[in-house]
Amino acid sequence: MAMSSRSIGALAAFVFLCSAASMSSSMAATDSFLQCLSASIPSQLLYTQSSPSYTSVLDAGIRNPKFLTNTTRPVWIITPTNASHVQAAVLCGRRNGVRLRIRSGGHDYEGLSYRSERPETFAVLDLVNIRAVRVDAASATAWVDSGATLGEMYYAIGKAGGRIAFPAGLCPTVGVGGHFSGGGFGMLLRKYGLAADNVVDAVLVDAKGRLLDKNSMGSDVFWALRGGAGESFGIVLSWKVKLVAVPPTVTVFNVPVTVSQGAIDVVTRWQAVAPSLPDDLFIRVLVQGQRASFQSLYLGTCDALLPVMRSRFPELGMNRSDCREMTWIQSVPYIYLGSSATVEDILNRTIAMDTSNKATSDYVRQAIGRDTWSAIFGWLARPNAGLMILDPYGGQIGSVAEAATPFPHRGGVLYNIQYMNFWSAAGGGGGGAAQRAWIRDFYAFMAPFVSKDPREAYANYRDLDLGENVVGAGGISSYDAGKVWGEKYFRGNYQRLAMAKAQIDADDYFRNEQSIPPLVAGK
């Protein structure tokens, strides 16, 4: 039915008044939230979008330049220094309808710890000031705050003794909170499993502002924190971990092999060898262009390593000249930052911001044939191609039951694949179309050769192309819609995670585009 000009004018006035009322209500909530925070948190720890330091504080924790622009930013940034500040932020947020996103290191692959894909009024709780590492060498344990980086944690452990270590990731600027929450693996995964496998307690602020430990949060929630997207359940302030034993001398090598030197055959063979080697030996592969680089950490001397390599992996041609002996803590910067890096360099929290990136992941349960590897190297030779990182499983990571932690990629997994591509940050948030297309098309090509039903993915290599939450009319994320991405990350553990979410945060306060939705038992 056609509307008269008078009706259209009345409707426009009504819409304007409603919009104005909504804006007024939003502004009132904004003012009320800030007033609430100011009653419990010092003003120097609070930043609004009009604060002179707002941009520098926000950007300091952004690790992917494509998220510096063209994205929904927080209205406030809170940089607490203790648990009471965090509790106050949660209570003020709940009272005023403001959600919190939690940033520890800022390495979330989709930036969801500090930005939103959709228009939303939210605050970032940046844990940069909650970053202590307290090592007890006598009991081989440590309390590590979520705002610490892996480098800061490793450095403190290395200072405490030359024969203790911790099994976590390679990149020293990654934040502990997000890394542990998604599982966390690195060069010690075959010997000692995930970072999350070695967490023995945690301190959590829940959606009611309560400060909980392992016992008071309950076994289901404690299980969920260790590899199940911990930001879905509250704010983990600190983690108690058990440290692991390493010898006084470890050996590192990096052997590059080009296609002309037989890389296709060596990588094909690596699939059978690497997951079944002695647990002390880890050999990953970086495949880029027409070269495969075999990077290794061995818990022992070169003299002990050489016979193993000659008998188990002679195809690589590794020899004594490839060996670099050092302490475990020296291996941390050597492997990731390069041969000239020092142990002190892992304390640097800044990274180069000259390239943006996109990544995704797969799991391989059956070895990929030589002909397919030949085709893969063809993909890697294309214009705008990215790279692959192959991390072998087996050993300790594969000996843990699939349901023991939320991280399900255990027995039967040969290796994990990370696909990554890069482009100049000068292109801004809208650049990289060709590089993103390469990732998308290559990922599609790989489908027949990787895990199926579901096609598995690693939660710490977050990829929104796998799916996003759908928020229903009641303001709660849909459990069924979340299965699309949730079962890729967590397989059969997704349902238990959703039930744990319902126990601790049934109202879905801690929510992002790939947070665990709540599922009430029996529904």
From TrEMBL:
It comes from the Eukaryota. Its cofactor is FAD. Residues 1-20 form the signal peptide. One of its GO terms (molecular function) is FAD binding. Residues 69-246 form the FAD-binding PCMH-type domain. Transmembrane segments: none annotated. This is FAD-binding PCMH-type domain-containing protein.
